[in-house]
Amino acid sequence: MITIFFFLLCLGVSDGTRGISLEGSKGKWQFLLKNTGVVSMHMALTYKNTVIMFDEIGAGPSRYPLRKRFGSGRRCTRRAKDLMDSTCFAHSVEYDISANSLRPLRLDTDPWCSSGSFLSNGTILGTGGYGKGAKRIRYYTPCGKNRQCDWNESKNYLSDERWYASTQTLSNDRAIIVGGRRVFTYEFVPKMGYGEKSYNLPFLQQTYDKSAKGNNLYPFLHLSSDGNLFIFANRDSILLNPRLNKVIKTFPRIPGDGSRSYPSSGSSVMLPLDHRDNFQKVEVMVCGGAATGALRNAGKGRFIEGLRSCGRMVITGNNHKWEMEYMPEPRLVHNMLILPTSHILFINGAKLGCAGYDNAKNASLEPYLYNPYKRLGTRITILESTNIARMYHSSAILLPDGRVLVGGGNPHGRYLFRNVSYPTELRLQAFIPHYMDKRFNSFRPSNLTIESYGGGKSYGIVYGREFEVRFMVGKFVSNNNEVKFSAYAPPFTTHGLSMNQRMLKLRCKRMVQKISGGWVTAVLEAPPSPHVAPAGYYLLTVVNGAIPSMSEWIQFRNA
Ligand SMILES: *[C@@H]1O[C@H](CO)[C@@H](O)[C@H](O)[C@H]1NC(C)=O
Ligand SMILES: *[C@@H]1O[C@H](CO)[C@@H](O)[C@H](O)[C@H]1NC(C)=O
Ligand SMILES: *[C@@H]1O[C@H](CO)[C@@H](O)[C@H](O)[C@H]1NC(C)=O
Ligand SMILES: *[C@@H]1O[C@H](CO)[C@@H](O)[C@H](O)[C@H]1NC(C)=O
Ligand SMILES: *[C@@H]1O[C@H](CO)[C@@H](O)[C@H](O)[C@H]1NC(C)=O
Question: Where is the Glyoxal oxidase N-terminal domain (predicted)?
Fold first, then answer.
């Protein structure tokens, strides 16, 4: 028997849109559920293919009534007293993606406007919140179909109250939590040794705008590939060395008036890191936000246009300058998600006002597709619009099958459905991007499996090691049969932030295709270090030109 192999091109050289036309492909919307019960103010995807959603406990009764209270197990009746009792309702749910179903989760303290990240073993780390929840650390260890797992509050507390703080996983398997309302410090979880406290960060005091409820809350955090942390708040940004607890760089202020951080609430993304420069170049982008005075005016019923501007800046090297460009419309309280194609999806949001209860108007119903590799001025395409407003307290998250889950929205302190312009939004949708169009099916790589996975007792791929993937592909998009590979760290999303979101374009070393059956085997190289990719679960995707496969989970780990 003779088996014939084709050797395929492993190098990623084009921007991935050559070869097929995406003309007229604006994506579409899918309706999933009428009632998630709980506003998905916060969302996080687990490696068991479920999505954790949660709201604030202080909002009172949700639309997910419980038969028995968590904890005491006391029955919840239809009596008025119980119907008003917040403990007779769920405030967090787990959404099963394939079953399109929900189950309630227990929350003991209020995670309102909290932050989160992931441990290297896939456990969600939730930090902070409101009232008794402000110093709490919560864990959620996903268990998939087993259906036993739940939130678990740690006996250890944060040093400071973290309400509107941001979290980022670092290269040493710890998370850093930065800021919070009236808190000008950062701290690490888990604590190093006994009694490690928080560290002062004068930058948070300097960027604090008292007249605008901060305008520097929920700072944007991005872990650079040199292990340093980029922190953006209001209009300014710094680079913090988290090992030495030292600010090592102050970047130029982003041009233009207005602010980008809560409650002005623009959004930010770290563009994909690329093996072709050994993941050296790191570029961040900040888009949208609110005009100066937006909060004060919203309080008087006047809604000022948000910002249209986007700024891009390379944060590595020594030459830092914001390159500015403009969106077709103003945008704030929106999400920016990296798609498997390495393009950025802008979704949800509003055009006027700012974040906070009743502070925004004119929902941004049209997502934008942003291609970072195109020429300035030609990067944004307007996609298919929805008819559901997703403004304050909404969120969106990329799913392993390539869709984007969209939920939430509630500009009120309670669940309100009548007599308001923007009712509490419990409908769940997915945005199905252009690349999932049926007409691209023959190009779509399928049956992706990760081979030579770990070995021995421990699971996962060690930094810098080679590993093998197998998949099938019918037709190649480009004439030189070019296929690319990406690894995506899914975010913890809330308030337009996608904490910990990270995309890596992986090095492919060899690739062959068996002539019969279309099976392709590729040898890839894991990222070189936890600076480039903190240990944990990533979504691995094969991209044929501009058409991605469904993603598979892969874990990167230290030796
Ligand atoms: C991950 O680590 C946390 C903290 O050590 C632990 O509570 C959790 O059970 C672990 N998860 C798994 C899946 O092993
Ligand atoms: C929380 O964790 C503790 C200690 O690991 C364990 O004893 C307890 O059963 C857990 N509770 C829940 C609700 O999972
Ligand atoms: C906001 O909505 C109003 C009413 O629909 C409309 O007249 C106005 O032009 C919109 N403003 C923007 C900036 O879209
Ligand atoms: C809603 O507004 C209408 C007319 O303004 C009023 O009759 C009705 O009672 C209001 N409903 C609620 C639930 O407030
Ligand atoms: C590829 O996956 C599909 C389902 O996605 C399955 O039906 C099919 O049998 C798989 N093909 C092979 C050769 O494993």
Answer: 41-435
> Is any atom of ligand 4 closer than 6 Å to the C-beta of 418?
yes
Examine residue 336 and state whether it is found in any structural domain, yes or no.
Answer: no
pLDDT per position as a tens digit, 507-559: 999 998 877 668 999 999 999 999 999 999 999 999 998 899 999 999 999 87
The CA 517 to ligand 4 mean position distance, Å, reads 65
Q: What is the mean pLDDT of residues 116-141?
A: 97
Question: For residue 457, what pLDDT is reported?
Answer: 47
Distance of CA 246 to the CA centre of its chain: 27
Does 118 map to a domain? no
What number does the ligand 3 atom closest to the CA of 362 have? 1
Is pTM beyond 0.85 here? yes
User: Per-residue confidence at 14, pLDDT binned at 50, 70, 90?
Assistant: very low
Phi, psi torsion values for 503, nearest 5 degrees: -125, 130
364 Cα to the center of ligand 5, angstroms: 39
**Which ligand sits closest to the CA of 423?**
4
Beta bridge partners of 269: 285
Is the pLDDT reported for residue 357 higher than 50? yes
- What whole-number distance in Å separates Cα of residue 385 and Cα of residue 389? 10
Structure tokens at 53: 């959603």
**Ligand 4 center–CA 423 separation, angstroms:** 14
pLDDT of residue 13: 45
Q: Which of 255, 260, 350 is nearest to 303 (CA)?
A: 350
Confidence of residue 29 (pLDDT cuts 50, 70, 90): very high
Q: Is residue 488 part of a domain?
A: yes
Residue 217 and residue 354: Cα distance in Å, rounded?
Answer: 13
Ligand 4 atom 10 nearest Cα: 419
* Residue in this structure with the two tokens 């600076």, named with its chain if needed: 531
pLDDT one-digit tens code per residue, 310-342:
999 999 999 999 999 999 999 999 999 999 999
Order of strands across the sheet that contains 236-241: 220-223, 229-233, 236-241, 246-250
Nearest atom in ligand 1 to 139's CA:
7
Q: How many domains does the chain have?
A: 1
Ligand 2: residue whose CA is nearest its atom 7? 152
Q: Is 361 a member of any domain?
A: no
For a pocket test of ligand 3, which of 362, 364, 385, 391 has the largest count of ligand atoms closer than 8 A to its C-beta? 362
Residue 469: give the domain boundaries. Answer: 5-17+442-557
**For ligand 4, atom 11: residue with the closest CA:** 419
Q: Specify the amino acid at residue 345.
A: L
pLDDT at 503: 98
Q: How far is CA 241 from the centre of its chain?
A: 23
Query: Quick one: which of 225, 243, 244, 206 has its CA closest to 284?
Result: 225
User: pLDDT (tens digit, 9 = 90+) per residue, 367-420?
Assistant: 999 999 999 999 999 999 999 999 999 999 999 999 999 999 999 999 999 999
| Closest ligand 5 atom number to CA of residue 517 | 13
Specify the 3-state DSSP secondary structure of 439. Answer: helix
Say which CATH number the domain at 449 has.
Answer: 2.60.40.10
Contact 391, 350 (CB under 8 A): yes
